[in-house]
């Protein structure tokens, strides 16, 4: 069937010369706009990558300084040379979300001091099992001590806990964890600066505001039983696992 005059004027098929010209112009405009937007997206990605690299580099520098200060610290007991600080070397990779920070009480002289490892023996095995059960990758968790050195006696731990707490706070402000899991009453009380029966709060999500100098940070703390307690009371591992499952199932905001 032949087309009418109006049909041929308003023919939008790709074969019509007028339509092909309009489409070509539109394509050229669209291509230019797409190229411009793609370039802007690429520039934005590069800016974010540079900012992230700078952030990681600055974080690593601060961690190196902090590690050095911990190693050379002499704030507390005179027997420092006999009880050097034991800490987990950390270089601050590109941290993945969510990031879990485990905090236990202090290195045990008999285990960690001799092995020069932050955790060893049964305590190390329990933590590894927890990490595996929580399906955490290497850059999704870190472990710290409340007290950086093996404690020769209880009095040292009590008298100098506040001085050592500064190191702990600096770690937390650097790592900015999604949640902090504290092992046992000492680690929990030292961080929260208040006493409360662990049996009453284990597995609870406790919102706290930490302060270091002029900085403030809101953190979520989940206390569970200490690694030592779980070691001598293996029947309580089920309770600890139920507490950890609450963390696993929690929806952490990025």
Key attributes of the depicted protein:
254 residues, alpha/beta, Uracil-DNA Glycosylase, subunit E, five-stranded mixed β-sheet, 10 helices, 5 strands, elongated
Explain this structure:
- There is one protein chain.
- This protein has 254 residues and is of the alpha/beta class.
- It has a domain at 73-248: 3-Layer(aba) Sandwich (Uracil-DNA Glycosylase, subunit E).
- The protein contains ten helices and five strands, in the order H-H-E-H-H-E-H-H-E-H-H-E-E-H-H.
What's this entry about, in short?
With 254 residues, the chain is of the alpha/beta class. The protein has a domain at 73-248: 3-Layer(aba) Sandwich (Uracil-DNA Glycosylase, subunit E). 52% of the residues lie in helices and 13% in strands.
Uncertain segments are 78-84
Strand content: 5-15%
Class computed from helices, strands and strand pairing: alpha/beta
Main sheet properties: 5 strands, mixed
CATH H-tier superfamily of one domain:
Uracil-DNA glycosylase-like domain
**Which CATH top level class of one domain fits?**
Alpha Beta
CATH architecture of one domain, by name, is 3-Layer(aba) Sandwich
Calculate the terminal CA-CA distance, rounded to whole Å.
63 Å
Order of helices and strands: HHEHHEHHEHHEEHH
Number of helices: 10
- Envelope shape: elongated
Helix content: 40-55%
Over all CA atoms, what is the radius of gyration? 29 Å
């Amino acid at each position: 069937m032949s087309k009418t005059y109006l049909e041929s004027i308003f023919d939008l098929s790709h074969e019509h010369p007028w339509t092909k010209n309009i489409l070509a112009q539109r394509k050229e405009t669209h291509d230019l706009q797409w190229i411009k937007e793609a370039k802007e997206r690429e520039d934005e990605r590069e800016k974010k990558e540079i900012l992230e690299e700078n952030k990681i580099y600055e974080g690593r520098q601060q961690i190196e300084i902090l590690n050095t200060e911990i190693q050379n610290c002499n704030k507390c007991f005179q027997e420092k040379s006999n009880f050097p600080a034991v800490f987990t070397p950390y270089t601050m990779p590109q941290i993945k979300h969510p990031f879990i920070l485990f905090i236990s009480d202090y290195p045990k002289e008999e285990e960690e001091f001799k092995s020069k490892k932050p955790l060893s023996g049964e305590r190390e095995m329990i933590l590894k099992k927890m990490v595996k059960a929580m399906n955490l990758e290497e850059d999704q968790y870190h472990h710290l001590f409340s007290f950086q050195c093996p404690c020769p006696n209880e009095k040292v731990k009590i008298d100098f806990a506040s001085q050592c707490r500064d190191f702990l706070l600096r770690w937390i402000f650097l790592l900015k964890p999604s949640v902090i899991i504290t092992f046992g009453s000492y680690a929990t009380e030292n961080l929260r600066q208040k006493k409360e029966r662990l049996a009453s709060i284990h597995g609870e999500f406790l919102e706290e505001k930490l302060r270091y100098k002029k900085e403030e940070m809101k953190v979520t703390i989940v206390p569970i039983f200490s690694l030592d307690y779980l070691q001598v009371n293996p029947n309580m591992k089920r309770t600890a696992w139920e507490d950890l499952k609450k963390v696993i199932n929690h929806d952490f905001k990025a």
